[in-house]
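Subgroup meeting minutes
Present: P.N., E.W., G.H.
Scribe: E.W.

1. P.N. recapped why we're keeping a running log of single-chain structure predictions: easier to compare across weeks, and new members can see raw inputs and outputs side by side.
2. G.H. added today's entry (228 aa).
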Amino acid sequence: MSNKITVAEQLRAVDLSNRCTRLLSLDMIWTGRMARAGHDDFSFEELAHVAREMATEIMGIRDELPFVREFAEHVSQEMDSISTDLVKSLGRIADDMADYITTYGPKEADELLLKADVLVKGGVPDGDLPRRLWGAVSAVGGVLTIAGGAACVVVLGPAGLPILTAAGMVGGPLLGAGVGVLLEDKEQKKRADEEEKRLAEEAEEREERVRKEVEKSKKKARKKKDDE
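Output recorded in log:
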């Protein structure tokens, strides 16, 4: 990526941000309709088409993640001396979200295609995006929107600040919602790990008590035998 932020790069960021919000909007249709499957009058073929569109968007976003990383980092560096902490952290946030989508996005895309086939055959699969993937996509959309606004400051100088403000108003909620979901999931995992550790420790303590009781019983049996 060149030192100068180009119009093509800004347009690419806008297009990709739109893909993220489109995926989230498709998920609303998918989740809502799946909850009413068998009750509302709609074509399963139409819903299967939604699932295929979601799979396409997931893979399209996944393929563009190297650009997301580069663009967010480029904007962060260009804004380093004048930006807020949020803009400076865009590169790191983009890396974290991209890692998750790269790892789990293709699997979910395959799952959606399988669910589309089930629908076409008259079945009713489970449906909605996993929360962490939803959060990662939402955060990427927010990162791109804010980075796009920050790029205007890089290009236009102070005249671009109102654009950054507007971009923050649009992208901030997306980013906040996405990061919030991931932090919540991380906290739940932490609690689950702590509970698993606690249960394992209790099991070890029970085993140790049983071992000691068995050893104690054996000693009593040996003493009784020796006394006899």
